[in-house]
Amino acid sequence: MPEPQRDDSFDAAHREWLVERLTRYLGVPVDEGVPFHEYGLDSVAALSLYGDIEEEFGPLIDPTDITTYPTVRELGGHMARRDPRPAGGGLVRAAFVFTGQGSQHPGMTSGLYLNCTGYRTHLDEAANALLPYTGTSMVDLILGDDPRIHQTAFTQPALFAVEYALAHTLQDAGVTPVAVLGHGIGEFAAATVAGALTLEDAAKLVALRGAFMQYLPSDGGMMATCAAPFEAAELVAPEPGVGISAINAAKATVLSGDRAGLERIQDQLEQRGIACRHLTVTHPFHSPLMAPMVPKFESVARRVPGGAARVPFYSTVYGRLTTEPLYGPYWSEQITAPVRFADAARAMLGQQTPTHVVEIGPRVVLTPFLRRMGGTGGPSCLGVCRGPESDAVDLAGVISVLDAGPLAAVLAEA
C-alpha cells in the first residue's frame, strides 16, 4: 500500500523547524533520519522541545510522542498530519475504526456491490485473495444470503473482505485516514489499510484463524455487562475458564469463557444491580478457551513477514498507539487478549484529534461508544454502512460529509 498522500512541502516545513530547534539545543548538525538519542537528547531537552512545539503550533503532540517518533522525519511527519492549518479551520481529519465480529448479516453491503463499481472491484479483489483458503467465494456467500455467514470460519473472512473493500473505496474517493483502529477481527483490515500486512498475507491469516476457531468446542459463551473493568476483573479472578474479552467503555465490559462460570458471575453482578446480557455467539472469543488453537495459528503466523504500520495504528491488544512491527506474535497474542477498545479509542481521539471518526463495517456497532467518548466537543462519528439497506447513495453521502467527493463514476449504469 502506498504512503498516505500529504503535501510534502508541509511536511518539510515541520522538519526544517525541528532541525533548526534541535541544532540549537544540541549544538551539532542534525540528520533527519538519525534517532534523537544518538545525539544525546536527554529528558530535559526533550521536554523543552515539547514546550517549544506547544508554543509554536499548539497542542499537536504529547511529550511521549518525542519517544514514539524518535527522528526528525518521523516527528515532523506526525506533526504535519495533526496540524490543521494547511486547509484552515475546515480541514477534515478522518480516523477509520473497523468493526469486529457480530456485525455481520446475510446480504451485507449487497446494495453497494450491485451499484458501486469501486466497491465491487475491491470486494472482488479481497474475495480472490481469500478463495484459496476458504474454498468459497465471499462474494457469493454474501450476495446469496447464505446462513454460513454466521459460522466463524466464514464470518471472519467475509467481514475482512467487506471492511477492506469499504476502506479502499473511501480512499479512492480521497479520504485518507489519519489513524486506524480495529476491534477484534477488524484489526486485520486496519493493519492492511495501514500497510502493515499485504492483502495476501492478511487473507491467509484471517481465513486460517477463522477455520481453526471453528473446530474448537462451542460450549462456551460471552456476556455483555454494565460492569466497570475493575469490577469484572474482581469476579473473573476465581474463574480460570472466564476472561475479560473486551472493554468497550467505562461501564461496558464483555466477559467470555465457560458458561457455568459466566452464570456464577452473572448472579453476583445482578445482586449488585449491574445488568448483564448473554450474547448469541458460536464461540467464546478472546477467552482462555481459545488457547488450544493458538500454537497451530502461531506456526502459520510466524512465517508471515508483517511490518510496521505506515498510518498511526492504535492497537486494541495494547490499548494504545503502537509503532512496533505487527509480526506473527502480535496476531497470536490477539486471539486470547482482551480487546482494549476503550483505551485505544481514547488515545486515538486525544492524540490524533480527528474531526471525523468513520466506523467501517456492515452496520454501526461502535459509533455510540465513540460519540460518548468524544463528548459534545469531540469528532463527528458516522458509519459508512448504517445496516442492510445501505447502498451507493448512502456511501456518496458519507464521502460528501468527509469533503472528499464528488464520487466520480461510482454508480454503475442501470
Q: How would you sum up this structure, described in words?
A:
There is one protein chain. The protein has 414 residues and is α/β, with parallel strands linked by helices. The protein has helices spanning 8-26, 43-57, 65-68, 72-82, 110-115, 117-134, 138-143, 152-172, 186-193, 199-214, 229-236, 259-271, 294-301, 328-336, 341-352, 367-374, 392-401, and strands at 94-98, 179-182, 220-225, 242-249, 252-258, 276-278, 313-315, 320-322, 356-360, 380-383. The strands form two sheets. It has a six-stranded mixed sheet, with helices on both faces. Strands 4-5-3-6 form a four-stranded antiparallel sheet. β9 (356-360), α16 (367-374) and β10 form a beta-alpha-beta unit. α13 (294-301) runs antiparallel to α14.
Please outline the helices and strands.
Elements: H1 8-26, H2 43-57, H3 65-68, H4 72-82, E1 94-98, H5 110-115, H6 117-134, H7 138-143, H8 152-172, E2 179-182, H9 186-193, H10 199-214, E3 220-225, H11 229-236, E4 242-249, E5 252-258, H12 259-271, E6 276-278, H13 294-301, E7 313-315, E8 320-322, H14 328-336, H15 341-352, E9 356-360, H16 367-374, E10 380-383, H17 392-401
Parallel strand pairs: 1-2, 1-9, 2-7, 9-10
Antiparallel strand pairs: 3-5, 3-6, 4-5, 7-8
